[in-house]
Each structure stands twice: as C-alpha cells, then as structure tokens.
Amino acid sequence: MVKAIVGANWGDEGKGKITDMLGQEADIIVRFQGGSNAGHTIINEYGKFALHLLPSGVFYAHTTSIIGNGVALNIPYLFNEIKSIVDRGVPVPKILVSDRAQIMMPYHILFDQYEEERLGGKSFGSTKSGIAPFYSDKYAKIGFQVSELFDEEALREKVDRVCEMKNIILEHMYHKPFLNPDELFNLLVEYRKMVEPYVCDVAAYLHQAVKDGKNILLEGQLGALKDPDFGIYPMVTSSSTLAAYGAIGAGIPAYEIKDIIAVAKAYSSAVGAGEFVSEIFGNEADELRRRGGDGGEYGATTGRPRRMGWFDAVATRYGCRIQGATEVALTVLDVMGYLDELPICVGYEIDGAVTKDFPTTVKLAKAKPVYEIFPGWKQEIRGIKKYEDLPEDCRKYIEFIEKEIEVPITMVSNGPGRDEIIKR
Ligand code: GDP
To answer: How many whole angstroms from 347 Cα to the centroid of ligand 1?
Structure first.
C-alpha cells in the first residue's frame, strides 16, 4: 500500500509531523523530489529536529528511509545530517539512495547565489541551495547521476566537458572565479566513497516491496502552489511537488498510490516572493507569526520570517484538487485560539468579478480576498483527543473549511507533538 503525504498550500504545512506520525506503521519512507532547500520539523522522544534531506522516518528502527531518483542529492549534506541525528542518540538509520538520483554539485549552489545577486531586488527569494541550477542541468542533460560516479574514465571526461561550459558562463555572465576540473573530479571521487554504502536500485527495491505488500509512504516537500506547472509560476520550486510526481521520483507505478493525504494549515504562511492573496501585515501578522507553528513561523532552513495570512479556501481547494487528495490533515489549529474572529478567504475578486477558482499567476496578481468571518473559540485546544470535545466554534471552523475544500478532513492536528492529533 502506497500513501503520499503532500502539501496543499505553499509548504510548511506540517507534513513532517504527519509523516513522522504515520511512519509508526510504515515500512518504507521515500523522499521523491526537492533537496535540502526546505525543512521538516519533527518532535519526538529524542528531541526536536529540523530535517532537510532525510525522510521523516529516520527516527524509527523499523523503517527504511529512501532518497529517490527525483531528489536533488547533496551528498555531504546528507552525511552531515545523518551524523547530526546519530550524535544526538538516534539509532543509525537504514538509508538507501537511488543509483539514479542526481548529485547537487558545489557549482549549483554557487550559480544559485550568483543569479540571486545578479537579479538583486527582482530575485526569486531562493534559499540558495542550488535547486534551480540543479534541475536545469538535469533536464539539459548535463547533470551527474550517482551511477556515473562509478565509472572514473567517463566521469573525468564529463567533468572536463561540463567545467568548460560552466566556465564560459562564470567568465562572461557572472565575472566569478573558474571551476577547476581536477578539484571537481577529486571531490566527486570523495562523494562516491561517501555514498557507496547506500546506493541501491531503488525502483527495483520498491517494485519488490510493493509486491510484498509493504507500507510505503511518499513524503513530499513544499506544496501544490510551489509546483512548477500548477503553482504560482515563476515563483515556484524547480521540481514537481505533486503526489503524481511521487510515482516518478520514487520509481513506482502511478496506479500504486492509493491514498493521498494533503496537509493543510489552519492559516496560511509562505516563504519567498510570489502572489499571496490572503496575506496579512503589521501587528496582526507579527502576532500570528510569533504564535504560529512550534516556536514561531520562521523558515526551518533559512530562519527567515514566513509571510502570514488567513486560511485561503480558494487556494487550498485548488491545492487539494491538483494533489488528487483523498483526505486532508488540518494542522496547527491550536495556534488560533487567541483570535476573536477568524477570517477565511472564500473567493478572489478579480476585475470586479468574484471567483472561487484559483487562476494563473497573471490574474492572481490582481486578486483581492473576499472573506467570511468566523467567531473565535478563545480557548486552548491542546490536549483534546476527541473531535466532539473541541469547542463548537472550532468545529464550525473545521467543518466550513471541509465543505469549501471538498475533501474530508480526517485528521486535525492540535499541537506539534507526534500524538497531538485528533482522528475523525
Ligand atoms: P513541513 O515542511 O510541512 O513539515 O512543515 P514545517 O515543519 O516547516 O512547519 C510546521 C511547523 O509547525 C513545525 O514547527 C511543526 O513542529 C509545527 N507543527 C506541526 N503541526 C502542528 C500543530 O498542530 N500545532 C502546532 N502548534 N505546531 C505544529
């Protein structure tokens, strides 16, 4: 049985917590896209962790954690991350890395920084983890697959060829120091030694696992609105954030994904630039940011303050639809107990007409939020275990959202901990 856990919004919905929780019953957890550019925060018996590249299953002795072919694999980063959790007392996890995963090169990170510098105020707000240059090279067919590390002769030839090309851009476009092919080759030999114990034909491994009836979780990064096709292009990420891509980025048949859990947050937050219709500002935003998530809404990778907003039913219904959500987990509801009133964005006004359909970016830029206001429940809801025990106004908020997004909300998360969840 394969389940995907993906974001319905702009990322940071709390997928890490839901994956960690469902990981208790999973045999295998797979990362299928993205890289170390976003983080998952997980709180468990070992402490609080911000994972960037490792799947959220690494804390369990019974799960195998997989880096699928769709991931941007930063090899030294992966090894530091493994070391950082093992150093804090977590048992050495079982990790497999796809032999078809491509390698994040040091120059991808440099090019990401150089490009942000070049764009100045018009930048994308990249985390400068090299993601866009990495995926550009993958599809331009000048990326390096893990498997290529094992043929030194061919590797050497390709390193020379790629450096020659990159150096032309470094010289004429960015006026930055050249890449040294000898150094790069030696580094890749080091990378091979680091990754070798983990390399696996992951697609074949998962083929067998599916046959054996194993429980497999596909763990998405970011959310539907950051997808390059269906998100707020061009202020998106460079790999697909959709459950459908889980099949490709892990190497399993699309029809094996039986359950798609879209994670949505009870309010909105976003990082980086881009349209954000229900965004709020000033004191109102500061207070929600300070109270939000677990210890405030600040990026798990960059520490940047996240942009804040009210729940956007238009964006979330669309996000769930594009994800193909079969169920929704609504998170961080506990944070909202301080509010007297809770606005929900139920429509976008564009050129004088109200729509409930999420438009393309050009139209989105003109959208103004149409709100419906709900009374606050003015109460702490952490610790509540049964749905019926939630305050009536809180249930009304949840049930209104459920009606708007047209997917059953099967889980309500009322605290950051693994067991702070209300199943319906
Ligand atoms: P992810 O990338 O989707 O995994 O999300 P992040 O980990 O970046 O952001 C979610 C943040 O909210 C983390 O700090 C979590 O510990 C926290 N969190 C998750 N669920 C809840 C919840 O129900 N209540 C509270 N207060 N915090 C939560």
So the answer is: 26
Task: State how beta strands 2-7 and 257-265 pair.
Answer: parallel
Question: What is the rounded radius of gyration, in angstroms, for the C-alpha atoms of the chain?
Answer: 22
Q: Has 99 been annotated as catalytic?
A: no
Catalytic member of 40, 227, 312, 334 = 40
CA distance 95 to 79: 11
Nearest CA owner, ligand 1 atom 8:
12
Q: CB of 327 closer than 6 A to ligand 1? A: no
Q: Where are the domains of the chain?
A: 2-85+204-423, 102-197
* 2-85+204-423 and 102-197 in the same fold: no
What is the three-class DSSP state of 292? coil
Q: What is the fold of 2-85+204-423?
A: Adenylosuccinate Synthetase; Chain A, domain 3 (3.90.170)
CA-based nearest residue to 262, from 289, 281, 244, 275: 244
Structure tokens given for 229 = 């096709």
Per-10-residue mean pLDDT of the chain, 424 residues long, equals 97 92 94 86 84 88 96 95 92 95 97 92 79 97 98 98 97 96 98 96 98 97 97 96 98 98 97 93 96 86 88 98 98 97 98 97 97 98 98 98 98 94 96
Topology of domain 102-197, per CATH? Adenylosuccinate Synthetase, subunit A; domain 2 (1.10.300)
For ligand 1, whether the C-beta of 297 sits within 6 Å is no
Distance 56 CA to ligand 1 centre (A): 13
Rounded Cα–Cα distance for residues 226 and 15 (Å): 15
pTM above 0.85, yes or no: yes
